[in-house]
Specification:
The protein is built from five helices and 28 strands. Helices cover 7% and strands 37% of the residues. The chain has a single domain, classed as Beta-galactosidase, Chain A, domain 5 (Distorted Sandwich). The radius of gyration is 20 Å and the shape is globular. The strands form six sheets. It has a nine-stranded antiparallel sheet, with no helix packed on it.
């Protein structure tokens, strides 16, 4: 049985050279050729208005860089772009590593090292590793700009439509993925990945009320492969600032401030508590206390109940990591940690505790997944998000210090009741 870290980055059967040849020979329409730009080594579409600019890669549909407050003297660029992007590396250990950056939609989510009913999905699915096709670029009467892409899956036949929307005066990106013809159970998730600042504890992270916090139920990082972890195995917690560690001293690790444990790679999960949310979205927030901005994501907890923290702060030393990758994945998912499809369909550490770990797809009924991700400038006194207040015309981020910032956003969108 492969350990969790190996499942997270397992080899796929298609090498980088093969994929490059496929993309070069597939050909793109004149319309999407004109729209593509080479950004950090990957052909990408760009969607922009006066407030937000979004780049999304053709390969894998990875969303980054994203620039918020793009017209300001200090624009905000919260997302991570992996450091090997323009090095021309071949035969990476997983196809998802080729464009690895920002946020991307995973179907099935996870390592997928084990075949499921004869299906051998790549890590994080074809939606994160194959070439998307340009469908349309539209502007609505209210100024909303929409980029629509599509992907035909082959391991399990289906079609996925990706919509990215930016609206005037709203510092967010609305995402919607519609899945059709993809029959059977599957994990699913959004793999949002932020760049870690260099200063210790400069990024303060918080989440909406959660009913379960848990570290990875098996070893996540394998020292024999040059990988090192700091968190305890299969431990529960109720406070992000006190997560059980592998060490006697300190016995607990602060997983609310980053970077705080350079040299380690860890995984933990928090499961949203819908009863405490009052029908509002579940949320995750990260405040950069040096650059003074706050990033947040919103989701429907009934659809994506779990948020994984992938804490990668130079803890992996194999190719292409080489001890130099520094990022924080804040991944909203439905799955059994990062183990993938097959383990998520069986009894597992989350399912045993009443947490949903798969969705059932009906080939005759489209199924959609919505998220909102955004970032805003905050005052220097804004330390860490204590709560989010949802209002008719947006939301209010309230800091532990008491400072607050109002954000115009149509948060009902993620609950399926807004457009």
């Amino acid at each position: 049985m492969l350990d969790a870290a190996r499942r997270h980055t397992i080899l796929t059967t298609m090498g980088v050279a093969t994929m490059a040849a496929m993309l070069g020979s597939a050909g793109a329409s004149a319309e999407d050729k004109d729209a593509l730009r080479d950004i950090h080594g990957q052909p990408s579409w760009v969607l922009a208005n006066d407030d937000v600019e979004v780049a999304v890669t053709r390969l894998g549909g990875h969303m980054a860089p994203v620039t918020f407050a793009r017209g300001a003297a200090r624009p905000i660029r919260p997302y991570h772009v992996s450091p090997w992007q323009e090095e021309g590396l071949a035969d990476l250990p997983a196809a998802v590593l080729v464009p690895l950056r920002g946020d991307f939609f995973c179907l099935p989510f996870g390592g997928n090292g084990e075949a499921f009913r004869g299906e051998q999905h790549p890590p994080h699915g074809e939606t994160a590793t194959e070439a998307w096709t340009f469908t349309s670029r539209d502007r609505a009467a209210d100024g909303a700009e929409t980029l629509t892409l599509s992907l035909e899956t082959r391991v399990r036949p289906g079609r996925v439509t990706k919509e990215l929307v930016v609206r005037p005066d709203e510092p967010v990106v609305y995402t919607r993925h519609v899945v059709q013809g993809f029959a059977g159970p599957s994990t699913v998730g959004h793999h949002a990945t932020l760049a870690l600042p260099k200063t210790l504890r400069a990024l303060a992270v918080s989440v909406s009320p959660f009913r379960l916090g848990m570290t990875n139920p098996s070893r996540f990082s394998d020292p024999t492969a040059g990988e090192y972890q700091s968190l305890a195995i299969d431990a529960t917690f109720t406070d992000l600032t006190r997560v059980p560690s592998l060490f006697k001293e300190p016995a607990d690790a602060d997983c609310a401030h980053y970077p705080s444990r350079p040299g380690y790679a860890d995984l933990l999960a928090v499961v949203a508590d819908p009863a405490a949310l009052g029908g509002h979205p579940a949320w995750t927030a990260a405040v950069n206390t040096e650059e003074h901005w706050a990033w947040f994501s919103l989701r429907d907890p009934a659809v994506l109940p779990t948020t994984l923290f992938w804490i990668e702060d130079g803890g992996r030393h194999g190719v292409p990591w080489n001890g130099r990758n520094h990022c924080l994945g804040l991944e909203d998912i439905c799955g059994a940690f990062a183990d993938g499809l097959a383990p998520s369909t069986r009894a597992n550490a989350l399912a045993d505790r009443g947490v949903r770990t798969t969705h059932d797809f009906d080939a005759t009924k489209p199924k959609e997944f919505r998220t909102i991700q955004g970032a805003v400038r905050v005052p220097a006194t804004f330390d860490r998000v204590a709560r989010i207040e949802f209002r008719d015309q947006g939301l209010r981020l309230v800091a532990e210090s008491g400072t607050s910032v109002d954000v115009p956003v149509r948060h009902a969108y993620v609950m399926g009741t807004g457009t």
